[in-house]
């Protein structure tokens, strides 16, 4: 049997019973990968190519992703967390003019109600995270909150579009530009989201994506750093590629035409440029096999985005129309100029609802309905902040962040969910409220 027939057989077997949803038996996950024949074919093509590390598939993936988001440059990396580390670390490079360079002790404004790997790069480079509160229902920080946190030590604003819901990134870009601050968009949960018809991830000096299987598209593990700035792009790629000074593509020798002709630091004259290191870097590249998967997924991205939006709208309409649900939960909201590509459907239990989050989530779990918290809740209350006595600054009391920590969760809208599954989720909420109340 040839490879093509083997792939078709594998896809056929996987599809059998895929739509036979059995309430209470079949899991309703919050996220998951959706793939078919083309993804398998592309990955096998990359395997048969025999190159495997970063190569032609990675180059194509970078070009197409940059074109989709609307940036000049894209660097494919091994995870969204690595993407965040690279984006912030790039601003510490000796190549950045000293006045704008991010140094130890400088401040980076962010939020505590998010994922740790937006915060951890700040700590890793020796900067000080400054936390501002977010708004309930949008789960994003306001421009006013960010403005209140600026100090003479502020160099960067680094925040995420929460669950795919765009913050007012146009206004924040103008704010940062006028004050000489860097803006990094963590776009890991928001691939395909737009503000004023422009994709998120195209506004900041740098932006990041994640392609973990839970996200809008997957490369198994993987991420990307995007920018319009050629200098930042050069720095990111150097940091990603062991810190090397050479700009030769992987597997290419003497791309610059002067491999043995220059003086580098205190090295012998003519030292092989392929082994000259100007940055403190690592190997954080993605593989060609992963990129091949990403190329196939990119072809389906518009379909995935549309399905996420449809699932979100259906849940919102059903929850909004149900008096009991509407009275006991804060439903999500968004900027009227935004067109979110939702990662999940967030809900916050209102005060005096008559039940707590643990009881509700246990009930949903007993029905095999997946839920997730809004990541770290309040990162400053996480064990690692105390274990490592992390230096930080808090602006305000983070009251909404603590509410999120105690009362917020989200359910899935990913493309693998059917209308039947969503109806079962809605019915389960109603059943819980009927029993409790």
UniProtKB/TrEMBL annotation:
InterPro entries: DegT/StrS_aminotransferase (IPR000653), PyrdxlP-dep_Trfase (IPR015424), PyrdxlP-dep_Trfase_major (IPR015421), PyrdxlP-dep_Trfase_small (IPR015422)
Keywords: Aminotransferase, Pyridoxal phosphate, Transferase
Requisite cofactors: pyridoxal 5'-phosphate
Pfam families reported for this sequence: DegT_DnrJ_EryC1
SUPFAM superfamilies reported in the protein's UniProt record: PLP-dependent transferases
Gene Ontology biological-process entries: polysaccharide biosynthetic process
Record carries keyword Transferase: yes
Keyword check for Transferase: yes
GO molecular function, one term: pyridoxal phosphate binding
Family under the similarity heading: Belongs to the DegT/DnrJ/EryC1 family.
NCBIfam families hit by this protein: PRK15407.1 (NF011936)
Protein known as: DegT/DnrJ/EryC1/StrS aminotransferase
Species of the source: Candidatus Wolfebacteria bacterium GW2011_GWA2_47_9b
Organism lineage: Bacteria, Candidatus Wolfeibacteriota
